[in-house]
Amino acid sequence: MSISDLFDSGFQKRNQDHFASIVRVAMSDNVITDDEKAFLDRLARNLDISENDYREILKDYAKHPINPPSSYDVRLERLYDLARMVYADHIKGENQVVLLEKLCVGLGFKSDNVKYVVDKALSLVEQGVDNDTFAEEIKTMNR
């Protein structure tokens, strides 16, 4: 196995784990809506998740760990994806917010700040901001 094969398999595993985290949010109410399904389909394509892996992750998403990214910018990108998933059907239920808070801790956000981060993230997604604006607003929210 070459170095590039090791890198590719590690990268693919991280993408699968990230995708599984988003599936957890979608499944928090035990239903994947049409909007959530469309988002999962697009995200799977963007993360290069194969059809077979897609089906397997949907069937057993809980077996994938939440791997916190080491880069703060990547952490914010994942938070943006997760917040959009929670808000996909424009109804942020209590279970989904609690799950998003847990996922934020899993992503590496400090547990004592996570309620504020989630509230701000959902507010920004509700406003329809793009990824860059989202990241900047979260980075400067304490100023």
Amino- and carboxy-terminal Cα gap? 49 Å
Biggest sheet descriptor: none
Number of strands: 0
Low-confidence stretches: 1-7
Please state roughly what percent of the residues sit in beta strands, choosing from under 5%, 5-15%, 15-25%, 25-35%, 35-45% or over 45%: under 5%
Average pLDDT, rounded to a whole number, is: 83
The number of helical elements comes to 7
Q: What is the general shape? A: globular
Succession of helices and strands = HHHHHHH
Q: How much helicity do the residues have?
A: 55-70%
Structural class of the secondary elements? mainly alpha
Instruction: Return Rg in Å.
Output: 15 Å
List the helices and strands and how they pair.
Layout: H1 3-26, H2 34-46, H3 51-59, H4 72-86, H5 94-107, H6 114-127, H7 131-139
Helix pairs in contact: 1-2, 1-3, 1-4, 1-5, 4-5, 4-6, 4-7, 5-6
Account of the 3D structure:
The chain is mainly alpha-helical. Helix content is 69%, strand content 0%. It has 7 helices and no strands. It has helices at residues 3-26, 34-46, 51-59, 72-86, 94-107, 114-127, 131-139. Helix 4 (72-86) crosses helix 6. The longest helix has 24 residues, at 3-26. The N and C termini lie far apart (49 Å).
